[in-house]
Design brief:
Length: 289
Amino acid sequence: MIGVFDSGFGGLTVLSALVARLPGFDYLYLGDSARAPYGGRSHEAVYQFTREAVEFLFDAGCPLVILACNTASARALRTLQQRHLPARRPDRRILGVVRPAAEALAGLPPEALPGTTAPRATGVAAVLGTAGTIASDSYRLELAKLAPRLRLVQQACPLWVPLVEAGELDGAGTEFFLRKYLDPVLAADPHPERILLACTHYPLLRPAIRRILDQAPGGAAIEILEQGRLVADRLVTWMARHPEMAARLGRGGARGYLTTDDPGWFAARAEALLGIPIAAEAVRLPAVE
Ligand code: DGL
């Protein structure tokens, strides 16, 4: 099974892209809804929560776990890969969403080999994320290596996840808070050519974001990038380079949905997002020392 972890239900936007691209694999999704949102939490809290979630998915039979959550990828992935896995789970792998999205922003095609001399993006790009993702500076650090001539505008949007969680995807109130964070991005001179929605929840706001961009002078030309497809395309390439891992993953097309909060609430959100009925199961994540 491929484990897919998110702080809540937003990561289903990534799961559905993975399933569309790699439908044959078994997937187990875990949303830590009881402790979401992660976006405003400390580095230590996000690391500890993510470690517990990843350990749970390993124990549930996932040799590979994808951190669909940007905040978890930005705050916890590196330490998990460099310390936790070698010490406790040397045969498992954890992948995040920051690096694949940064590669896409840098203009690298999914099949580009590490160290490739392919041409890199220039101009201006914007990354919109939670306070934690932006404070980690992860995108800037990745892009400084991948596309040093690309100018990056970063914008934290701390009120967007609560809007999505409340189902407020449109209307005057939502527009006010969308503009609150889009206006500074649109004020960049020159405009960004691309905006990355670097949070699992933000694709749900995409139609309203698109409308606001289209109304702004020059905004219609701005491309909006979502992570799901970018991550899925790069996972295909990663699997081809790691056949030993691909061989360990079940291929019965099974799907499982776990949440740390009310499974009825989660299933209702998930069904709206995925467009199919699902059965969600409530789990408790044991503490990891
Ligand atoms: N899943 C988180 C992310 O992609 C957003 C929600 C949260 O703040 O927990 O950053």
